[in-house]
Specification:
Length: 223
């Protein structure tokens, strides 16, 4: 009789083991998927003195590491940023900042210096200028030179609120904002930025900057 009772008990134990293993496999799979779409960082980038849009008191900080010469950054600016601005920046949930990356050489540096000059002169003019500079990026042959002093001044002359174009030209001629651009490059190195755009939400790096669903989840988790 004692041996006859072991069968059901062993079966129940075996079933429990199988169930536990299945649960563990599901959890590991989910953790693996989460690791693939985000990367937790030890800290968030310091956005002191960076261009910031939205409520400075927002709990969620989103940082874009971008390059005005980069076509993917233009695509992100066209496709993702407008939704982010409407849903979260304008509603006071997110503060958004832009950090310059110089992956495309002299033109990247020139665009970055121009942006820093506009920001230091009139922060309200920065975001319209920022948007217009991306919009000026050619859709065909974007590798051809296009970020030039003349092009920057042409764009600046059309921005509202108005930009002091003479001051901007002087800053570009003297590379007056190169130290600010240099501080951005320190952040690029510190946070091992290898692609543009790179999007960081508080201290979490989004692996695919165009994954808006994951971006929204990170925002909601950070509130």
């Amino acid at each position: 009789m004692a041996q006859a009772k072991k069968g059901p008990k062993n079966l129940v134990l075996f079933t429990l083991v199988v169930v536990v293993l299945c649960v563990l496999l599901v959890m590991l799979n989910q953790a693996s998927k989460k690791a693939e779409v985000t990367e937790s960082l030890a800290s968030a980038p310091d956005i002191a003195n960076q261009p910031v849009e939205g409520s400075v008191d927002a709990k969620v900080a989103i940082m874009e590491f971008g390059d005005y010469k980069c076509p993917s950054c233009k695509a992100w600016s066209d496709q993702i940023y407008p939704k982010l601005k409407k849903d979260y920046i304008d509603t006071g949930i997110v503060k958004f900042s832009y950090i310059n990356v110089l992956f495309h050489g002299e033109e990247s540096q020139l665009g970055a210096m121009a942006g820093e000059s506009v920001w230091s002169e009139n922060p309200e003019s920065f975001w319209p200028f920022h948007k217009a500079l991306f919009q000026a990026q050619p859709t065909d042959n974007h590798d051809a030179p296009w970020i030039t002093p003349d092009k920057i001044l042409e764009i600046a002359n059309k921005i509202e609120p108005p930009i002091d174009v003479a001051k901007l030209q002087q800053d570009l001629d003297m590379q007056a904002t190169l130290p600010q651009v240099g501080r951005d490059q320190e952040l690029v190195q510190d946070f091992q930025i290898e692609q543009t755009p790179t999007i960081i939400v508080n201290n979490v790096k989004l692996q695919n900057p165009f994954d808006y669903d994951t971006l929204v989840k990170l925002i909601e988790d950070g509130q």
